[in-house]
Specification:
alpha/beta, transport, two-stranded antiparallel ribbon, 259 residues, Electron transfer flavoprotein FixB, electron transport, ETF_beta_N, ETF_b
Length: 259
């Protein structure tokens, strides 16, 4: 029976983020947190695998102090235990640092047969974590999976590659990232929410992971983020002849370099 670990990220809910019109800066003062959308698919994939053939699901996250708000939600979605690392360093960590921290925690608390990640986080969406984790742990990586099965010590997956799919198989243990189209994350029932309060969670101290200052120093630093506002030109074509309107539209688009 597979022992599965799901890595997840606690992010700001983009629906709550406002754009300040004066400078396009982001107002996150009223933004609530949530489990990254794509990580919910990874949690659901793990829960379905265990419900079908037994096993266990642990969840692991690295975030700021607010990450503790994620614990009950994660546990209500099928995880048996959640391991969490809360440290201010996470606020400026790049994908390299995050992978170093999670890999160290996995070495300390593993082993696991299968490590699942979402295809990317809802905020940065750099899609680097699964491959970096696999490289650090010396494991095979199956990315962009739209279907997964575990049979004995083998992982079989269907990968989506642009306009085609690829069937792959690898030995466990392995790392895999799942696409959002793989499943529809469950909405926890009242029983699952109440049951989550009885499941264990464990804080993992960053200082206990034996990482060097160099491993915790980000090499890519986000210097700022701004919103995007589309200013519509509101051009109307009111020729009585429809063909003339189409011709004017085509000419206008060509003048803008769009066709």
């Amino acid at each position: 029976m597979p022992q599965i670990l799901v890595c997840f990220k606690w992010v700001l809910d983009e629906q709550d983020i406002k754009i300040r019109p004066e400078d396009l800066s982001l107002d996150t003062s009223r933004a609530k947190g949530k489990i990254s959308d794509f990580d919910r698919n990874a949690l659901e994939a793990a829960a379905q695998l265990v419900e079908a053939q037994g096993g266990r699901v642990d969840a692991l996250t690295f975030g700021g102090p607010a990450v503790k708000n994620a614990l009950k939600d994660v546990l209500s979605r099928g995880a048996d235990q959640v391991l969490w690392i809360a440290d201010p360093l996470a606020e400026r960590a790049d994908a390299r640092v995050t992978a170093q921290v999670l890999a160290a925690a996995i070495r300390k608390h593993g082993p696991y047969d299968l490590i699942l990640c979402g295809e990317g986080s809802s905020d940065a969406f750099n899609q680097q974590l699964p491959v970096r984790l696999a490289a650090l742990l010396g494991l095979p990586c199956v990315s962009f999976a739209q279907a997964l099965t575990v049979a004995g010590d083998r992982l079989r997956a269907t990968r989506k590659l642009g306009d085609c799919v690829e069937e792959v198989e690898t030995a466990l243990p392995a790392v895999a990232s799942v696409l959002s189209e793989m499943n529809k994350p469950r909405i926890p029932t009242l029983k699952q929410v109440l049951g989550a309060a009885k499941k264990p969670n464990q804080e993992v101290k960053l200082a206990e992971l034996g990482l060097t200052p160099g491993q915790l120093e980000p090499r890519a630093v986000r210097v700022g983020a701004k919103g995007f506002v589309m200013n519509r030109k509101n051009i109307l074509f009111k020729e009585p002849d429809a063909a003339a309107n189409v011709a004017r539209l085509a000419a206008s688009l060509a003048a803008e370099g769009m066709c």
